[in-house]
Amino acid sequence: MKHFCKRTLSVLLSLLLIVSALNVAASAADADLRLAVASDLHFNFPREEIEGPEIGSIDDPLFWYANRRAAMEDESGFIIDAFLRQCAESDCDYVLIAGDLADSGRRLREEHEAVAEKLRSFERESGKQVFVIDGNHDLGAGDSATKMQDFKEIYADFGYDRALTVRENDCSYTADLGEKYRLIALDSCDYNKSTEDGMTLDKLNFVRAEAAKAKRDGRYPIVMMHHNLLDHMPMQRVVSRNFIVRFHRTTAELFADWGVRVVVSGHEHCGDATVFTSALGNKIYDFAVTSLTMYPLSYLMLSFADDAIRYDSVPVERIDTDALTAAVRGYTDAQIRAMNDDLNAYAKGFLKKGVEYRLWLSLTLEKMGIKESDFYYGAAYAVFSRLNELLTMPLYGENSVQALGKAYSIDIPDSDYRNAWDLATELVSMHYAGGEHFALDSTEVTLLLRAVNLILHDDLAKFNDKVLLGGANRLLGKTDAGIAEELTKLGCKAFGAVTPGEFFLLALLSPFLYEFAFDADGVDDNHGTIEGYGVQNNARNAAAKAQSFFTVLHVWFENLLLIVTRVLRLH
């Protein structure tokens, strides 16, 4: 009888799960509203001919013309055309663009006018409405060529023409989307700052009032703004503070309790979905959308129903390369063939090479303002020259990072990465694309930490040899290796490659590393289904929030205990 009851209960639970899944699928299929959301178009007028960077050189057969922004500037207009073409052919009801429509919009009004013409043609041919909001690249104060009123005038047909409310002092407005939803397009920018947010108490009160008005009208509020509402990397407000609104947790708490469940944003150029639960158990999701003209060349499709909201990241699949080569000279057959074969893979290669170039520029003494006349020039030159050598050194084989690691008793695990630059830019590209899933013991994280450990040991040894012990080395006739280098290697073999202090530091950093390597918020960045506006599970949400907090606390203490144990063993 007991086994029969268990089997019966299992069957009933299975049926319940199947029915629930079918209900969610049906909700996605019978959506009340479908939105295509893009951000950071960064439109540029293409050059007459592609050229390499002015400073330095990029040695790559395909991506030699990559730029420090890692954005496909010459191709941007053609990518925007392809995006709009896909939207026209899709079942989306509206198109939303969360800012930075033009790359140099503050000083080149003509870029905005070109984007507006593309959007106007799309609306005319597809019959679908576009809604925009400004980003930090779009307008400014003072002597900017594009000011607030200019932006409203240029994009009058894209939200402002259907607006229920338009704020006088910024670009915010509200508009109805379909029969059940209302868009609150919130201007989060500071016109006097290049990237910082311009959130004010007045703007918060605007959201509160419009969310309450939407509720009275029987509509659900959706917020679109340029700056992120929630963290899309560990401690974003500290590490990348200009990309997230100030007092973001307080703002998220307020938005959630005012009835906002979905926020779409951009600015960070990453594809990342994350969730916040207020003390009252109200959930709010911030969907950070990637830059349309940077890898992964994608936008977000959102399908709303009362009980479920489905979201999917959609790539731009193909651009008109015939039109591109007709407008811009200099592309090789190999480049065009690579774009046509796999546009997304081409964009990833372009991004990785651009990021490498940008980081390489950041590591030059000239970029850091260090001159030969400065008394510390020799020390800085020794450190950064060696760092550049280690970053470009092959990871494996003869005269490699792996071989050097053995001298310091640091085991560099095998992988398919060519050098440290390849690994670093791969991790950056994964941040942009979303879906970080590396556990702390994964090859990528292990390789990264050990490579950094090796760089610290070797770079410090070289610095000591060339600067602090330079005279002693010359006196003893050292050539291939210096005193400090040999002592460091000897110490690593005798006492291990990592000191107790480094173990302790790793314990303190483990929550940060855990969150960066493994997106543990339970929300898939690119594809998934969340609760619709009609679902209220406040008590369960509040309990889940408490459990999540204690889980993170447990991970932190577990790592701390592990490190302390290992430190004690060293003694």
Give a structural overview.
It is built from 18 helices and 13 strands. It has 571 residues and is an alpha/beta fold. Strands 4-5-6-7-8-10-9 form a seven-stranded mixed β-sheet. The longest helix has 33 residues. The chain is globular.
SSE layout and pairing:
Blueprint: H1 2-29, E1 33-38, H2 76-89, E2 94-97, H3 109-126, E3 129-132, H4 148-154, E4 165-166, E5 173-177, E6 181-185, H5 201-216, E7 220-224, H6 236-239, H7 248-257, E8 262-265, E9 272-277, E10 283-288, E11 298-304, E12 308-315, H8 321-327, H9 333-341, H10 343-362, H11 377-392, H12 401-407, H13 420-433, H14 443-468, H15 470-475, H16 483-495, H17 500-517, E13 527-531, H18 538-570
Parallel strand pairs: 1-2, 2-3, 6-7, 7-8, 8-10
Antiparallel strand pairs: 1-11, 4-5, 5-6, 9-10, 11-12, 12-13
Helix pairs in contact: 2-3, 9-10, 10-13, 11-14, 14-16, 17-18
Q: The biggest beta sheet, please?
A: 7 strands, mixed
Q: What's the multimeric state?
A: single chain
In the sheet with the most strands, the strands line up as: 4-5-6-7-8-10-9
The count of helical stretches stands at: 18
CATH architecture label of the largest domain: 4-Layer Sandwich
Secondary-structure-derived class: alpha/beta
Question: What's the rounded overall pLDDT mean?
Answer: 83
Helix proportion: 40-55%
The Rg value, from CA coordinates, equals 27 Å
In total, the number of domains comes to 2
Shape: globular
Q: CATH H-level name of the largest domain... which superfamily? A: Metallo-dependent phosphatases
Low-pLDDT windows of residues: 1-28
**Span between termini:** 60 Å
Range of strand content: 5-15%
State the CATH class of the largest domain.
Alpha Beta
Q: Got a strand count?
A: 13
CATH topology of the largest domain: Purple Acid Phosphatase, chain A, domain 2
